[in-house]
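Hi all, long-time lurker, first post. I run a small reading group and we've been trying to get comfortable going from sequence to structure in the token notation. Rather than ask abstract questions, I figured I'd post a concrete chain and ask someone more experienced to write out its structure so we can walk through it together at our next meeting. Sequence below, copied exactly:
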Amino acid sequence: MTDDRIGIIGTGIMGAPMALNLVKAGFKVTAFNRTAARAEALASDGVDVAKSIAEVGKMCSVVITIVPDTPDVLEVVEGDGGLASSMKDGSVLVDMSTVAPGATRELAGRLASKGIAMVDAPVSGGSWGAQQGTLNIMAGGEQATFDRCLPIFEAMGKTITLMGPSGMGQTTKLVNQILVAGTASAVAEALVFASAQGADLLKTIEAVSGGAGGSWQLANLGPRMVQGDFAPGFMVKLQQKDLRLIQEVAQEAHLPLAVTSMARQYFTSLEAVGLGGEGTQAIIKAVEKLAHREARQNS
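-- Answer (accepted) --
Happy to help. Here is the structure in token form:
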């Protein structure tokens, strides 16, 4: 696989470190980003920079897309000069964005008619996982296509699972986001509660992390919440987009997701005051505002 050239469309907070990990693993990588400077910043580390999406499609046997939302994926793939019209017969599109499962299944069908295979492979782990090459990758597609792409996935992630046919990677990612949003809400509420009782917040996190209440969100985002570190590993506005996708699917299936709806309200309040670019740990700010109490503590 290392003889194939891998394309990557989208070199933002996630795509850039993913591209660098591919280079480190020995792949030839060509990148494109709508904001050209973001892709050009990778050139000194061995990433070739394309001038257009079509150039990536023509050059690469496997192309990864990691862009914000469903319309962005459709534009990159099927818009003017998109991948659908430039990728060769027998090539593979790997969409690592988080988008609507139904749209993914439909896109995979249209690409198949052009001789282009598709794997939906959204990721979890935030920018930290992307940098460290430890992402959780949830894939949907045919076994043979997944097997072809597995060495690529192994350069970027540690837990890599084929979940079923097209769309099942996206479905699994939305399951992940239900858990993430609900748990982050609980962590924020727990820390505000602890603050109100005069507890040592960092010691509280340490004490409960190893018990039944422990979680990745508590261990990793809890300290950031109380130390006032709101730099994004995953942005509020992207979490909001994922929650919208979840609620759209849930509405179609007539599923009541009360905890998810509550979590979305917290994130909505953050976006309303211009905090959409902060990390999802900023959810504690929404809880603090309701409680009229700040939960902050230095190490």
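A couple of things your group might point at:
The longest helix spans residues 168-196.
The CA atoms of residues 190 and 223 lie 13 Å apart.
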